[in-house]
TrEMBL record:
It comes from Paenibacillus gallinarum. Pfam families: Aldose_epim. SUPFAM superfamilies: Galactose mutarotase-like (SSF74650). The lineage of its organism: Bacteria, Bacillati, Bacillota, Bacilli, Bacillales. It comes from the Bacteria. This is Aldose 1-epimerase.
């Protein structure tokens, strides 16, 4: 389907079926069968690749480890102590899938197939819509027995890549609405530069202390000198190994991450919206290859946290018939112009 310079069509990414979007110099690829993962976002004219990809010759790696490529959907996100999920007077039990900590990790949606609802193009953009409909009989209804639909719409245009997530409670009781994206940003994104050429800024606030099981202790830790730079003028994303949990602290009404190539002035902006009250930032042991600025609605292990308000920890309820919606965008500006 083609309109002007905007195109959407069925193709492949390695051995997997993919929906491919094109708009001017931009190209994006989604793999519906593995978590509805938007695995690739590139400026093909400039040779920029903004997301960490397995590469089409190694696409099977996405299936083996879907949480570290592209934009994986985490629902519910991060860790839950002993797999316990208290909600409205009941305790649900999620499977223990992180043996080292005895926790449940990252929910269910990032590795199962999503249904393609539609894809197409018009004079302004190309787009794809995928969804997950959860009812009795769904693979994970037995763990969290709520009836809902999660819908993802990705749009590619001259304004970059927009993500719109919609969650609809179609059941008869309130449900937990805990969501994050384990977005894997490639740095360097320009093959002519090196990791040392990059600085990252993020709208972090306070840092939570995590225990040996990577669960919050309830204490707040002072930010280091480098973390203060992270929230102000920027710092190299690999200044030390990071697997850190922060509150978000929007600046000028925006909640975002910016990654700047200091050689060229090109800045990748990840504007995530203010529904995400927390950030996780993980850089794969300072790998110099990619890092994950993860917008997250809730505090890690939120259902098991006491002494704080639900609003503060992001333990958000979605009432029957209620629709939650949030938009995020990835785009590039040049600060040197």
């Amino acid at each position: 389907m083609v309109q002007d310079t905007h195109t959407a069509y069925e193709g492949t990414y390695g051995s997997f079926a993919a929906i491919i979007l094109k708009s001017g110099p931009y190209e994006a690829k989604m793999i519906p069968e593995i978590g509805g993962n938007l695995v690739s976002f590139r400026d093909v004219e400039r040779g920029h690749s903004y997301l960490r990809e397995p590469g089409e010759d190694h696409a099977e790696e996405l299936k083996e480890n879907p949480g570290v490529f592209g934009i994986p959907v985490l629902f519910p996100p991060n860790r839950f102590e002993d797999g316990k999920f208290p909600w409205n007077g009941k305790v649900y039990h999620l499977p223990i899938n992180e043996e080292a900590t005895g926790n449940h990790l990252h929910g269910f949606m990032h590795y199962i197939p999503w249904q393609v609802v539609s894809f197409g193009a018009n004079e302004q953009e190309s787009f794809v819509v995928v969804e997950q409909i959860v009812r009795e009989g769904h693979e994970f209804y037995k763990y969290l027995p709520f009836e809902y639909t999660i819908r993802l719409r990705y749009t590619l245009s001259g304004l970059g890549l927009q993500q719109q997530v919609t969650i609809i409670n179609e059941g008869k009781e309130s449900m937990p609405n805990l969501l994050a994206f384990h977005t894997a940003i490639k740095a360097p994104f320009d093959e002519t530069s090196e990791a040392a050429d990059y600085k990252v800024k993020a709208t972090i606030g306070q840092r939570y202390e995590l225990n040996g099981r990577s669960l919050p202790t309830g204490n707040i830790q002072p930010l280091s000198k480098e973390e203060e730079l992270l929230k102000t003028e920027g710092v190299n994303p690999y200044f030390e190994a990071m697997d850190n949990h922060y509150t978000s602290e929007p600046q000028n009404g925006r909640n975002y991450m910016e990654l700047t190539n200091t050689k060229t002035g090109d800045t990748l902006v990840y504007d995530v919206g203010t529904s995400y009250k927390h950030w996780m930032i993980w850089n794969n042991n300072a790998s110099n290859q990619f890092f994950c600025p993860e917008p997250q609605m809730n505090l890690v292990n939120a259902p098991n946290v006491t002494g704080k308000s639900n609003e503060e920890i992001g333990l958000i309820a979605l009432e029957p018939g209620t629709v939650f919606e949030q938009a995020s965008r990835l785009y590039v500006v040049n600060r040197s112009l």
